[in-house]
């Protein structure tokens, strides 16, 4: 499957904090930047964090939670679908620094056509991220029978 890279721009409360989280902890390569925004290479996609100091230092983002396979999935959220080996490596890296997962690394829809590994966590500004993996991405990602 060949995909065109997507571009996603999100708000963050502090550029240095976002650099530490996305660049340092998640180890995403940094691209162009100014004092008000930074580009990151999110597994081949362009993630841009834009400063919004109005988000403040404290407080939770009010997010909708939808039930999916018995778990509360935060909406909105974003992330990347990885192969299983890369997902495993990322989940171990994230577990070493994340204070609390929204949804711990797990396998959802076990034994079903849509079986997938997934994890959810928040960045320091409260943006929800999901990283998931399928055993056969090309077959399972858009399988309507699942």
Structural topology:
Elements: E1 7-12, H1 15-25, E2 30-33, E3 37-42, E4 45-51, E5 64-68, E6 71-75, E7 78-82, H2 84-97, E8 101-108, E9 116-122, E10 128-133, H3 137-140
Parallel strand pairs: 1-4, 7-10
Antiparallel strand pairs: 2-3, 3-4, 5-6, 8-9, 9-10
Protein name: Glyoxalase
Organism: Exilibacterium tricleocarpae
InterPro entries: Glyas_Bleomycin-R_OHBP_Dase (IPR029068), Glyas_Fos-R_dOase_dom (IPR004360), VOC_core (IPR037523)
Summary, kept brief:
20% of the residues lie in helices and 40% in strands. The protein is globular. It has 3 helices and 10 strands.
The CATH architecture of the largest domain? Roll
Can you tell me the residue ranges where pLDDT is under 50 for at least 5 consecutive residues?
Answer: none
Remind me, CATH topology of the largest domain?
A: 2,3-Dihydroxybiphenyl 1,2-Dioxygenase, domain 1
Query: What is the topology, as strand order, of the major beta sheet?
Result: 1-4-3-2
CATH superfamily of the largest domain: 2,3-Dihydroxybiphenyl 1,2-Dioxygenase, domain 1
Assembly state here? single chain
What is the overall silhouette? Answer: globular
Query: What's the CATH first level of the largest domain?
Result: Alpha Beta
Report strand %: 35-45%
Q: What's the mean pLDDT score?
A: 91
Span from first to last CA? 19 Å
How many structural domains can be distinguished in the coordinates?
2
Query: If you compute it from the alpha carbons, what radius of gyration comes out, rounded to the nearest whole angstrom?
Result: 16 Å
Total number of strands: 10
**Which class do the helix and strand fractions yield?**
alpha+beta
Helix content class: 10-25%
Q: Given the structure, what is the number of helices?
A: 3
- N to C succession of SSEs: EHEEEEEEHEEEH
């Amino acid at each position: 499957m060949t995909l065109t890279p997507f571009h996603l721009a999100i708000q963050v409360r502090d550029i240095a904090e976002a650099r530490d989280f996305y660049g340092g902890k998640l180890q995403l390569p940094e691209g162009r930047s100014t004092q008000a925004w930074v580009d990151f290479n999110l597994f081949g996609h362009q993630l841009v964090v834009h400063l919004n100091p109005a988000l403040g230092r404290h407080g939770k983002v009010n997010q909708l939670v939808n039930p999916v396979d018995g778990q509360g999935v935060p909406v909105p959220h974003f992330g990347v679908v990885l192969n299983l080996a890369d997902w495993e490596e990322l989940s171990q890296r994230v577990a070493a620094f994340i204070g609390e997962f929204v949804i711990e690394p797990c396998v959802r829809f076990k034994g079903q056509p849509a079986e997938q590994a997934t994890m959810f966590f928040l960045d320091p500004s409260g943006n929800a991220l999901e990283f998931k993996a399928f055993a056969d991405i090309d077959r399972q990602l858009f399988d309507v029978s699942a």
